[in-house]
Design goal:
By secondary structure, the chain is an alpha/beta fold. It has ten helices and nine strands. It has helices spanning about 20-30, 60-75, 100-110, 110-125, 145-165, 185-190, 200-215, 220-230, 245-255, 260-270, and strands at about 10-15, 35-40, 50-55, 80-85, 90, 130-135, 170-180, 190, 240-245.
Length: about 270
């Protein structure tokens, strides 16, 4: 593959074995990328030869560095880095053990930082590269009973803003994409940390039912994959891009202009709080 890929674009995508990461990988392959798909579990069997599975745990330095070394041993360059690995926990702040919150950040935030830091030296040396970080609309407005998930995504917003300033002179671009609700396995794999005897339990059940309904009836992940593929070959990367159902994109826009008290009242009504 090495000789044949000299003139082909190469991408490393985390979280690429399912959900949004897999959809992004498929779309990148469709436009001619060789994709090194990173994940802890093996991907589906129906992927083309241009998809190379790389077993990776973004929560471990050794695993990330080993994956980087493997990719760079096969390719002379890396054009695109997409960080899509992540998971969600839900529950009240009071009921969530700090160790669980740390695990959330170790994947969703520090996992991104590990991957970016691993691949940046190579991008600097080649004098070009693009980095697309998959954040969330939950990183623009706090979600009830998803405080630590929201916080991890809020952290990525600041991370990408800072990164853009630092790498600009090396001809490296960075962008954060903020998806809304897409129909993936994310809903079923979310960790719910709350007990029936919790004083927050009834409220939690009402809120999570609304959130899961929106996710289950969300957009097809292929739509996000196609949008990321177009973004990957666009003339310039924007600082951020919100992708999702119109109602959710509108909510992000409204959040910027409404007084806090008004927006909180809207969220309390929407989530039956």
């Amino acid at each position: 593959m090495e000789a044949a890929s000299e003139n082909k674009r190469v991408a490393f995508v985390t979280g690429a074995t399912s959900g949004l990461g897999l959809a992004i990988s498929r779309s990148l392959i469709d436009i001619g990328f060789i994709v090194y798909g990173a994940g802890r579990r093996k991907p589906p069997l129906d992927l083309p030869d241009n998809y190379v599975y790389v077993q990776t745990d973004v929560a471990l330095d050794e695993s990330v560095n080993k994956s980087r070394d493997f990719v760079l041993s096969q390719q002379s360059h890396i054009d695109l880095l997409v960080c899509a690995a992540g998971f969600g926990i839900s529950g009240s702040i009071e009921d969530t053990p700090i160790d669980s919150a740390i695990d959330q950040f170790n994947v969703n935030f520090f996992g991104v930082a590990r991957v970016v830091c691993a691949f940046l030296p190579g991008m600097r040396e080649q004098g070009r590269g693009r980095i697309i970080i998959i954040g969330s609309i939950a990183g623009k407005t706090g979600m009830p009973f998803q405080a630590y998930y929201s916080a991890s995504k809020f952290a990525l917003e600041g991370f990408v803003e800072s990164l853009r300033y630092e790498v600009r002179r090396f001809n490296i671009e960075a962008c954060i994409v903020e998806p809304g609700d897409f129909k993936t396995g994310f809903t079923g794999s979310r960790q719910k940390i709350i007990a029936p005897e919790s004083p927050y339990y009834n409220q939690f059940e009402r809120v999570i039912s609304v959130q899961e309904h929106d996710e289950i009836h969300g957009l097809d992940p292929a739509k996000l994959g196609e949008r990321i593929a177009r973004l990957a070959v666009s003339k310039r990367l924007p600082a951020r891009l919100t992708i999702g159902p119109l109602f959710e994109r509108l909510a992000v826009w409204i959040r910027r202009i409404l007084p806090d008290a008004w927006f909180e009242a809207f969220y309390r009504m929407y989530y039956h709080l």
